[in-house]
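Consider the tokenized backbone below.
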């Protein structure tokens, strides 16, 4: 595993890719996943850096 160089700001982007949007409607509950799995890490990391979290659906 490689360590990241320090930065005062990070942008984290979560992408859901749908290769068949005409036939498959995607519903992504990313907020619940972030709260359930990543919130503790993000809380600790935000002490030393400003984090911006975004999500997108591509398709």
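A designed sequence for it:
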């Amino acid at each position: 595993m490689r360590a990241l160089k320090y930065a005062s700001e990070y942008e984290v982007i979560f992408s859901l890719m749908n290769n068949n949007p005409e036939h498959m409607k995607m519903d992504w509950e990313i907020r619940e996943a972030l709260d359930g799995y990543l919130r503790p890490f993000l809380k600790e990391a935000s002490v030393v850096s400003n984090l911006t979290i975004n999500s997108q659906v591509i398709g």
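The chain has one helix and two strands.
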